[in-house]
Amino acid sequence: MKSVILSLAVALASAAPAMSVVVWGQCGGSGYGGSTVCDAGSTCVKVNDYYSQCQPSSATSTATAPTSSSSICSGTRTKFKFFGVNESGAEFGNTVIPGALGTDYTWPSPSSIDYFIGQGFNTFRVPFLMERVSPPSTGGLTGPFNQTYLSGLKDTVSYITGKGGYAAIDPHNFMIYNGATLTDTSAFQAWWQKLATEFKSNDHVIFDLQNEPHDIPAQTVFNLMQAGVNGVRAAGATSQLILVEGTSWTGAWTWTTSGNSNAFGAIKDPNNNVAIEMHQYLDSDGSGTSATCVSSTIGAERLQNATAWLKQNNLKGLLGEIGAGSNAACISAVQGALCEMQQSGVWLGALWWAAGPWWGTYYQSIEPPSGPAIASILPQALVPFL
């Protein structure tokens, strides 16, 4: 998600929980602690052991009930190993450094993590800012970590992994630190070695080396990512998955035209546990700023070239961000994208953008209990692929 979104969300207020659950909302399941009473005209229906849902009880309802992935997709599918959401918030207020907790940025809500774990999702990407964990005022990337901010990150990771989930830690900097583009591979490797040391004993941590580099040559980004891989492994973090991202906002739809496809086939990991992270939105410019999707088939279409490239290079991919509007065309487009991925056998999983307590009414917000993507996107486009 491009940084313009981050400055909009701080002022948005969270919605208060309702006494009864809206149609298509969650009303039960393993670990669920919310209301089991549905709004008038709907009934709580068990979807799976982890998720029961308020579905319309009237035959005249115009809403569409969620369908299983077997009826949405044809052919053989591979279940995602990693499936979940981005838990956004600690990267907010990125123009205010260091910023104040609760004013400029926030950490994810434990209740949000519980909500998704309870439904069967297992992976949470946790964006944070490099300038907050490694303040420019105390030595920058080579200086000491800010222990207060680092503790917030570690507490969030511990909560997620303590619930059995995977936490993908994500420096959400676009390969820019303190206003300057990162190019020093040695410094980047050393920074990652130091950070990975903090998490090396937790095998449910995923290292996402850098969010959405852009306006940088693909080869330069590749060199930095390879250095990051080397740094993580040098820290003794040998069991965890590492995610590398490309230039051009790491877009799947531009992967083969941005230079990424020429550079990233050479990525090396001594532990053979690295994947290519791509992002994909389904609006006209792929930015995730419009609720209008190009078409009902645009999801699968935008992934096809990237999928073919992954197969040709014997690599795995993970869609670290996907988002779209809550309308029929977009729901079909998201379903098509996830079908494309599960049928391919090369995608490890997908993460929705985004949960987080400060998104308010942003159309892609999936923050429980009442983010705009909860009512339709969650049950119709995501739950069927668990």
UniProtKB/TrEMBL annotation:
InterPro entries membership: CBD, CBD_sf, GH, Glyco_hydro_5, Glyco_hydro_5_CS
Domain CBM1: 19-55
Entry keyword Acetylation: no
Catalytic reaction annotation: Endohydrolysis of (1->4)-beta-D-glucosidic linkages in cellulose, lichenin and cereal beta-D-glucans
Entry EC number(s): 3.2.1.4
Signal sequence residues: 1-20
Entry GO terms, CC: extracellular region
A Pfam family hit: Cellulase
Protein family membership: Belongs to the glycosyl hydrolase 5 (cellulase A) family.
Name the record gives this protein: cellulase
Organism annotation: Lentinus tigrinus ALCF2SS1-6
Taxon lineage: Eukaryota, Fungi, Dikarya, Basidiomycota, Agaricomycotina
